[in-house]
Amino acid sequence: METVSTEPLVGKGTPLPDYIDFLLSPDTPLDFHVNVGDPDLCPQERIGAVRWMLIARSKVLRVMLLQSKMMRHNKEMSITDMDPDTFKNFLMFLYGYDNTQSLQLEAAIALLCAAEKYDVGDLKSRLDMVITPQVTVDNVFAVLRKALVCEKMPQLWETVTEIIQYRTDDLFSHAQFPTVSPEVLLHIVQQESLSVPEIEVWRAALNWSTHQAQPVEGVITAENLRLTILPFLKHIRVCTMSTDHLVKEVQVTEILTPQESVEVSRTVAGKRESHSLSQISLDTEERGR
Fold it and tell me: CA 286, CA 132: separation in Å to the nearest integer?
């Protein structure tokens, strides 16, 4: 997968205002510094900042820098949940310069996560408007990887949901699909509406599980597949599939236990038990399309 830079637009053909260049320059003798980056991944970068601007613009940093006895008189702090390039973009916006329109998608998403974490409301609203038009079926997984943040952005999440529900086949056939996180796959299969038949949901989950399962002595067994696909079985509506699909594509994998196969058969025949302990979906209502 192509790596998308999160660098700010310094030296990329878009000249910054003189005051931004001055404030971001490592030679500017600011009286407060932030050590930025996860030290477990790379050396931290020491970046000068206007302390009172951090306090004024971020509610979270205001509490950290004014109410914490440890931080109140310190002249530096550490931020490990942001990379240096994202922090510089963050500072630019706090200082009054909006370069968000020029950011690439993943850089904008990284900045959105920072805006959410440090509670900068106008930056969140701005990025909701900036990111939304950029989202397509080819890059929606980048948004879904940060779903806990992105789902709070109304316009953005509406667009993401529309892609999932109306471009499902394109998502399932995307080269990145087998590598998405379990959380992303779970979000997809939990949708009330998808634009594909339920057998395609099963095939996609099976494809994902085949790529994710841990082989035993080089062999992926039915047990391996079951352990991998199990968190999603409660959301794949096998009882809405045709008998042909159930027999030839679901039961043949031996992922379902014999008891679960019996429960599916009884449910399809209208003889579902009222108190089932099954780990699979016995929902007979077809998903919206």
Answer: 30
- All structural domains of the chain, each given as residue ranges with its CATH number in brackets, are 16-100 (3.30.710.10), 168-288 (1.25.40)
58 token code pair: 């971020």
From edge to edge, which strands make up the β-sheet containing 33-36?
45-48, 33-36, 76-79
Please say whether the beta carbons of 99 and 12 come within 8 A: no
pLDDT in tens, 184-201: 999 999 999 999 999 999
* Interacting residues of 150 by C-beta distance below 8 A, sequence separation 6+: 109, 112, 131, 143, 144, 156, 157, 160
Q: Are 62 and 89 in contact (CB under 8 A)?
A: no
Name the amino acid, one letter, at 231.
P
Q: How far is residue 233's CA from residue 228's CA, in Å, rounded to a whole number?
A: 10
Condensed to tens digits (0 to 9), the pLDDT of residues 226-269 reads 999 999 999 999 999 999 999 999 999 999 999 999 999 999 88
Q: At what angle do helices 182-189 and 222-233 cross, to 10 degrees?
A: 60
